[in-house]
Design goal:
Blueprint (H helix, E strand, L loop, with lengths): L2 H29 L5 H15 L11 H27 L2 H8 L2 H13 L5 H18 L8 H23 L5 H23 L11 H24 L3 H8 L2 H13 L5 H17 L4 H6 L18
Helix pairs in contact: 1-9, 1-11, 2-8, 2-9, 3-7, 3-8, 4-6, 4-7, 4-11, 5-7, 5-10, 6-12
Length: 307
């Protein structure tokens, strides 16, 4: 399969993940009313780890790989936990908007790690996307309350998670790395649940469909698609695509909850679409020379090579 085709498929996978995650804002908000946060996270990450445990029979587990999984899993758990607790104290739309601060932070973090400055095209498209998401989802005055502050920190951790996945995929199979981070995130979640939440937790029968969605689609499918997508796409472009979860969250709220879609929100959606197209537009000189459009940015991800 040609590299350009791989990149297109990878971007489509990340867009699918973003749509699934957009729906999860609605599902998670209602689920937290009846099930404690760490228990929900523990169930989600456990399901993800079980779904990918077959990779243990295909890849050799080393201390380096375990260490990478433990670190990436810790960052993933912390990001999820802060975002989830933030969702309890703020609205779903503000939670979605503030989280996507990682769109701007990913190239900054990657610049710090790789010492390569992102291109002006990527930087401008990221800012446009960030502005569009603000128009789309920020419906009231921005105040730094408890929920907003927790969500803001989680956005930084999501950016760090994307960068770490990109770095470790150079030496570890993407699916195996996904399993490892799920496993360690599940360990952290169960430990936090035992320490902070009353057990056993009674799960109402009506919550099982929501848990199934969060465990199988949002966690297992979504993060597998994300990590595969990151492997074949530029980090900043990946962040832009994944950030559209806020747009999907808003659209699903309109369809399922009857929220009003204002002119301002339409303008935000248009800004996001333009930014995504702009972020993947090659310069004429690149096109004329026949250089590949994939990973042309100086801070792009190299191919994965297993240890």
């Amino acid at each position: 399969m040609k590299r350009k085709t791989k990149t297109i498929l990878a971007n489509l996978m990340m867009l699918t993940a973003a749509a699934v995650w957009g729906m999860s804002f609605v599902v998670m908000k209602t689920t937290l009313n009846v099930i404690p946060a760490n228990t929900v996270l523990a169930l989600r990450f456990t399901a993800g780890a079980l779904g990918l445990c077959y990779t243990l029979f295909k890849h050799r587990l080393t201390l380096k790989k375990a260490g990478a999984g433990a670190l990436v899993g810790a960052v993933l758990y912390a990001a999820f936990a802060l975002q989830t607790f933030g969702l309890k104290y703020t609205t779903a739309s503000k939670n979605a908007f503030i989280t996507v601060v990682y769109v701007v932070l990913v190239p900054v973090f990657y610049w710090f790690v790789k010492k390569d400055r992102p291109s002006l095209r990527i930087a401008c498209s990221a800012l446009l996307c960030f502005f569009g998401i603000g128009l789309l989802t920020l419906t009231d005055a921005f105040t730094v309350g408890l929920g907003d502050a927790l969500t803001l920190v989680s956005g930084g951790l999501y950016a760090l998670h994307i960068v770490l996945v990109g770095l470790y995929e150079e030496k570890c199979d993407v699916v195996f790395l996904t399993f490892l981070q799920f496993f360690f995130a599940a360990v952290y979640s169960w430990g936090a649940a035992l320490l902070t939440e009353p057990l056993p937790v009674t799960i109402p029968s009506g919550s099982w469909p929501s848990l199934a969605y969060l465990c199988l689609l949002s966690t297992l499918l979504g993060f597998t698609f994300q990590n595969i997508g990151i492997k074949y796409s530029e980090p900043s472009v990946a962040a832009l695509i994944l950030s559209t979860e806020s747009m999907f969250a808003c659209l699903f709220s309109v369809v399922l909850l009857g929220d009003e879609l204002t002119l301002r929100m339409w303008a935000g959606a248009l800004c996001i679409i333009v930014s995504l197209v702009w972020s993947q537009t090659r310069s004429k000189s690149r096109k004329d020379t026949g250089a590949p459009c994939v990973n042309e940015d100086p801070h792009s991800l190299p191919s994965s090579e297993e240890v």
